[in-house]
Amino acid sequence: MQGDVSSLPLAGSAVPHDLSIISLFLQADLIVKVVMFLLLAASFWSWAVIFDKLMKLRRLRRDAEHFEESFWSGGSLDDLYDRIGQRPLDPMSAVFAAAMREWRRSAAKGLAASSTLRTNLQERIERVMHVTLSREMERLERFMPFLATVGSTSPFVGLFGTVWGIMNSFQSIAASKNTSLAVVAPGIAESLFATALGLVAAIPAVIAYNKFSTDFGRYAGRLDGFATEFGAILSRQLDEKG
Question: For the whole model, what pTM was predicted?
Answer without folding.
Answer: 0.80
